[in-house]
């Protein structure tokens, strides 16, 4: 492993603790001139923005943090005008002489302004009030900005208010990114940063992602050294250029002895072919607009459905179980990990974190299609019961000791099987509108009933899935497609989000909607949902997400499809059918055996028969085996598509050509090669594309002489891959869904290629999104 991602939350927690140690030290130097019997002496009142609590709870139990940082009481930050506030600030302030405000630095201006007004009009006047002065009570005020954005502007805001000298300012720079799983890092931007992309083409997501990557490089002690870059989309190319500038600036700011460490890393990496093969880092960055189909499509994985139907805030999930025969304690209620505020009235809720370090069950089911989750849980329950039954067969003291030693682990496993069974049942209840078989709700752990958790099959859910499949397969003509969507809308009267999703998929597949059908949709949507959605329809049209397609002329039957350059900067697919054929996005269901160690034969398990384009682009770097699998009906497989004019930016430099020679030389005979994006037909997807092999000028001769490598060198590279410390970093600007993440893990695991096998996968995204986020980002 090249990089231990567990240091990310540890560094963040250490930095937060260090900030409070400084605050404590300063507050202790502020001595009162009179004796006091205040029980809160030496403790802090933390005024916390609520959204920060979820990240703190991922780092450590809040009770532990309070002990380590001398936090006496926590209240939510409420910057509402006086009279509308939920707290009696004056009473609370009188109990503490250290007040700490913690607020996100990337809040909108209105919220920050309200917070600063609260500071100026309520907090500072209290701290300097005549009453406090008369009794010699000195109150210290600190403000902690969480995040690295707007550091200068926050200070300037305080200065403009005239309170800069009255408060101590701290910046929790490692507040984000957040480690959601051992291979998943998120910036946790609202809606994945899509609102910035849709409305103002802001560079905030690009800047934040570049800074995050630099932060990871530094945290790895510069062992993460990008050697290959694969970039698709203008945002991705801007991101990598920005990262390179940040990296160069950072290197130039380092003291000589630290800079030498970086130089030594490069020398070690490029000392010979073996070192490079075992230490290279591939960076793949793709714009969200490359595949909005996956962004708005229905997720079918366990984690994807959890997020879609219940919601997961940084992996934390809370739901009221449908089973009435299990008490909150048995179900694993964990209120301590939920919120730091009062949780009264939520005793019946099950709360836990997906990916908890103690959870051995989640890793088995997180990436599965939901239809396979039930069998895994049942098998685990039977295994646990079999282990419990061994207590009746113990023969001597040694066996009893061994059983007792395993007992705690069995109980822990039992608890997690309960929780996930309840969660899976709750998902079924959601898609079936509460109509769940009684047999499916009987859970008696350790004797877990045979809960059969099949694929959700409610009328609404199944029809919604089938309609998406029909649209993607382009099996309906324009009139039939529109009629099917309208019939679905009239029959179910769904929330507008789902109708817009269907129209976005239709517009992508059909290259727009014929003008007569578009006018009908517009009229019917406004009639059913109201005139308030006119701005939404206008925005969809502007971004070419849902737009009318004009006919060439009255006499012509041909269709005037929009030019690729006129599709806009958000949605980049200009020919979905061509993309589907060349990348085999809709693989046909066959009777072929699935790959070894998996129950799937392709990555379409995470969506309704659809493989996300982002997943295929990553897979195509290391394998083109998908071209040998069955394609959807009516499609053809292009094994080696011709290079299109706009893809000439694919690597053609001497260094990149040499790297292709490297892959061919190292893997002679039956050994696979590393394809990169050479000979990959991406003419169906707009946006810049770039592929770079990043090697110092003075080391290029190493890769120009690979054809003369003798056999023992190449064999050494291949046979020692278990010692490798290389990495694949997959980035997405605009967020990824959990189902896309599952499919990425799948293709990397199943590549079976020496250039990817045993590589460490690291997914870095601006946020984990669900389909509703895409629609809400348009408002």
TrEMBL record:
Compositional bias segments (type: Low complexity): 647-657
Transmembrane region(s): none
GO terms under biological process: vesicle-mediated transport
Disordered: region residues: 636-657
Family named by the database record: Belongs to the STXBP/unc-18/SEC1 family.
PANTHER family: VESICLE PROTEIN SORTING-ASSOCIATED
Protein name: Unnamed protein product
